Fold this protein.
Amino acid sequence: MNLQNLTDTAKALVADGKGLLAMDESNPTCNKRFAKLGIPQTVDARHAYREMIVTTPGLGECISGAILYDETIRQQKKDGTPFLKVLTDAGIIPGIKVDAGARDLAAHPGEKITEGLDGLRDRLAEYFQMGARFAKWRAVIAIGDDIPSRSCIEANAHALARYAALCQEAGLVPVVEPEVLMDGDHTLEQCRAATEEVLRTVFIQLNSQRVMLEGMILKPNMVLPGLICPTQASVDEVANITVKSLWRTVPAAVPGIAFLSGGQSAELASARLNTMNLRFKSKLPWALAFSFARAIQQPALEIWQGKEANVPAAQQALLHRARCNRAARRGEYTAAMERT
């Protein structure tokens, strides 16, 4: 383990007003999104879509790292250039999703546990040799009647910490993603309470597993009411309560917090991140960045539609969303940017 390399990589992932592009959807998830738009659910279609993303001109101006899926990290452009080389040539650090997905947690209806620790050490070594320099593991925490349970939170926090320790052993920066889901009718206050409990537990476990906090990135949810909650929060309310929750739970040693979008619209995700940086950036010990998937990709996917002729317009839409989020990191995003 090279502690300096881990620290340097973690800092680079949240430097210069940039953020992460999460393009690590599993094949089933990617296929579902394609199906909604009438795009063929094939290896060739997924390859074409991901080539469109990684070859977007200027993407490295806004994106510091790209989280890939196992299929994607092994793919090449039509001319034979590996996607990994395309990314690194653009100044983008390659990363890899390494969890095996969430499964039902036994004896806990409505709750999930993320699997994938078996054989992880060997997989991480392979990905490092391929050129990846960071990895991601996602845990999902639902809010509902009598959940999240303490046992669900602890089980997922322990798995996240074991994953993070294995990553650092392999020379990879762990992106630790404990996601409190937006699904449901829970209130803003219920999300705050759950988020804070989850984050406190995660950092207890990270310390227990001797994870070096300076060599990791936290990828949390923003504190939000459920999607079908009758009372939705304003951008200012979300920004204030999210930052306060992070202040209470995230050690200053962590170099950066890269929010997931979690089903937010592209514009709202940018506006909320912008307000946090505009109000609090000078007071925070860690950088507030982004690690968005749909909130960057969805407009481009809808334009692309699986058609080669649409690639330039789709790439322009992708770059536009990346630029909006870089502006949000600087507290410079405005609604007027959406009309340019």
Remarks:
- The longest helix spans residues 150-170.
- The mean pLDDT is 97.
- The chain has one domain: 3-339.
